[in-house]
Design brief:
seven-stranded antiparallel β-sheet; 1 helix; 108 residues; SH3 type barrels; mainly beta; single chain
């Protein structure tokens, strides 16, 4: 029995592949300051905030890649599109992904 723990790895958009299991680790939000309405003619300041995803650890399987977009499917079969300019993803091990998907099917 293999008892070694294999960590997930944050990957760049160029490293995503169809069939990989991934999880969203962080999401980038951009906000326009309310002060921009009071200062006409000035550059509009944008505030960027990166937060840890509530779904971190939730396995998704990559169905298709068209950078910067990735079509993923969760264990329930729900499809979603991720914009990799906004979402940071980590590759999960195949064993973790398969187990997460099979466990979810058993819960139906």
């Amino acid at each position: 029995m293999d008892t070694k723990t294999k960590p997930s790895r944050v990957i760049g958009p160029e490293d995503v592949r169809r069939g990989d299991y991934v999880t969203v680790t962080h999401t980038l939000y951009e906000y326009i300051s309310d002060l921009c309405a009071a200062t006409p003619g000035q550059e509009v300041p944008i505030t960027r905030v990166t937060v840890m995803s509530d779904d971190a650890g939730k396995a998704n399987k990559i169905v298709e890649v068209c950078l910067p977009f990735v079509l993923v499917k969760d264990a329930n079969g729900k499809l979603d599109s991720l914009d990799l300019r906004r979402h940071r993803v980590a590759r999960l091990t195949k064993a973790y992904g398969r187990r997460a998907f099979s466990a979810k099917k058993g819960q139906k």
